[in-house]
Amino acid sequence: MAIKAARAVELPIDFVAGMVHLDFSGNREVVVEGCRGVLEYDENIVCIDTGKMKVRFLGRDLAIRNYIDKSITVSGFINSVEFLT
């Protein structure tokens, strides 16, 4: 039912289903919607709790630029992304 409603108003299904949403700008920045907390943070690793899974960004010169409500922005040189359950 919620998925049909999301499609009807052209919302991304992941927003309605409570899933994490990642919006990349190349490998230099990512906005994560659905963040519930930061588990690990240094210049090479940013690990985020999203409830159902953890998302780990690996790279160099990583920094958290914004963390407002359940949205977080990570910038730097992102080399890889891991999804951990």
TrEMBL record:
InterPro entries: Spore_YabP/YqfC
Name of a matching Pfam family: YabP
Protein name: Sporulation protein YqfC
